[in-house]
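Technical note accompanying the year-one report. For the benefit of new consortium partners, we illustrate the data format agreed upon in the data management plan: each record pairs a sequence with a structure-token string. No post-processing was applied to the example shown here.
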Amino acid sequence: MSILLEADGLEHSFDYLLFKDINLQIKSQESVSIVGVSGSGKSTLLHILSTLLKPNRGCVKLLQNDIYKLKDDELIAMRRYDVGIIFQSHYLFKGFNATENLQIASLLTRQEIDYKLLQSFKIDHLLKSSAGRLSGGEQQRLSIARVLTKKPKIIFADEPTGNLDKETASCVMGSLFEYIQKHNAILILVTHDHSLAARCHKCYELKEQNLILS
């Protein structure tokens, strides 16, 4: 299995030091969870790993590319084709219907919409509905389906099941785990849910400015 993500010596601070000397390697078909108390820096670390925030110190390699040394067009291409980010907020186009939201990802990456996935998410009957009129849980599932439509190699997820009931959350996470196995991808998950974190291959805790393997 090849290494798809590698972090070396990451350090970051705002008004105070969040974390230091963070080192991480994730191979294809692996899932990794990161837990920690609020304010420990979990989301900040996820943003650094996912191309959204340059660290104060250290480097991040995705698909063997040092991402913060890439040219702007190279970084944009990586975000479009290789990286999928599931945010706590849905970032759907509320004026479009569900199908149109999926088609945006499909057209940008030249990938087909997976209607079996929509059935497993129980949103296949909502395709003509305006995204803005869907419930919070339905919007979350549509948002995750849109990310998977891109067929990314690296998936970052920040509390992806926060708006879902326990049964639906289990179904959605099962689909994510199945996806990374099928597509030789990886999943990096930030969550407060320790039972969900335990389903990943490796679980880390961000504690006292360090990333500790649980």
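Partners are asked to follow this layout when depositing records. Helices lie at 42-49, 72-81, 98-109, 115-120, 136-149, 166-182, 194-197.
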